[in-house]
Amino acid sequence: MSNTPQPYTFDRVVRLIISAALLVAVFALLRYLSDVLLPFAAAVVLAYLLNPLVTLFERKTHRRGFAVALTLGGLAIVAMALVLIVVPLVAGQVSRFSANLHTLQTDLTAAVAAKVNAAAAEPPPHGSDTTEGDSSAENGADAGTSALGVRELIEHWPQFRRGLRDDRQSAWQGLLNAVSGTLVGGVLVESADFISSERFEDFILDAAKGLAVGGWNVLSMVVNFLIGLTGLIIVGLYLGFLLLDFPEYARTWQSFLPPAYRPAIVEFLAEFNVAMRRYFRGQSIVAGLMGALFAIGFSIIGLPLAVPFGLFVGLLNMVPYLQVVALVPAALLAVLRSVEDGGSLTASLLLVLAVFAVAQLIQDTIITPRIMGKATGLRPVAILLGIFIWGKLLGFLGLMLAIPLTCLGIAYYRRWILMHPVAETKIAKEGTS
């Protein structure tokens, strides 16, 4: 291979422009088809990760289909077991939270009642006649009961119902005359005036709009649930077919490459495969250690659902710094903790933030450099930057494929940029000078 750089002829410049245009077109097409390709991409990533386990079962059973069924069935059993463990815990926490809220409401009601009774028990002003005050109170109570108009409404209600058959207007007027001057009569008059006014029409329209919006939200939630369930089924179908034919794909994919570029591409993808395996192996260890660390920290501060929630936060570490999204549910659990213990909400939130800060500090200074640095040679900031870039380019599909695409780009840079003949010549010249 020649060490002299190739000249930029007109033909080469045109080829570079066409290649760049094709690359932009491919990115635009992937972004346009991201919703359709998302289940397939998820299935491809899962198939890549599960294929070693399927291969291990295949060696024991000598049947690829049975090994795939055993792997997927085992994963389904593990998922159901986790659901059966976590759901009762969550239900218990919700029940305790409701009981605590009821107790809080009862305490507040008792406190208000105590204040009212204390105000009512204050002695009357000097110079007032107690006997006369008691007589007035009794008369006021009777007058208050009559002024409500409940007795009059009950007495005249059967007559009002009978009168509706003959003359609705007279029956209504008779009922109003019966409760005239009472609280019920005032409410009926105000209600009749409100119903006959334009405000009632506006009220009905607003209520109809609210019901329509609420109904649409419920319908949207049901539709989104069905779409998500359909997506999971599609991912499962893709995953099953990919795992069944994975050996065939691994054996024949090289035949689809141009013969002139086949050896270089095969060697390049082999390096990429090694980098991916190292990354996922190292990141799985990091996620497991962080899950244990968060579970211990949450248990120390007494956070509800400490162990399952801590393991969930650790699982989020499969994507660097994704555990930040767990701050919102962690804050809700901190509120629940403060209500249960009757402690300070500020202290609970500060304890949760302290657990996150200490865990992140240990991860960034000890765990990640020792494990991921040896596994891939990449720093977390490079992976995080790749996640943001691919997410911006391809949306959610880019977030899912960010790690493989980042490893692919780094492998390309190492092989065809750093190891390019021109770069090797410059390095050799610098070494001899």
Word description of this protein:
By secondary structure, the chain is mainly α. Helix content is 85%, strand content 0%. It is built from 17 helices and no strands. It has helices at residues 10-32, 34-61, 64-120, 130-148, 150-166, 168-178, 183-195, 198-244, 246-252, 262-300, 306-316, 327-341, 345-375, 380-394, 396-400, 402-418, 421-432. Helix 5 runs antiparallel to helix 6, helix 10 (262-300) packs antiparallel against helix 11 and helix 12 (327-341) packs antiparallel against helix 13 (345-375).
Tally of strands: 0
> In angstroms, what is the radius of gyration?
37 Å
Share in helix: over 70%
Span between termini: 23 Å
Strand content: under 5%
Contiguous low-pLDDT stretches (5 residues minimum) are 127-145, 421-433
* Mean pLDDT metric: 75
The global form is elongated
Summary of the model, kept short:
Among the domains are: 37-96 and 220-256, no CATH class; 258-424, no CATH class. The chain is built from 17 helices and no strands.
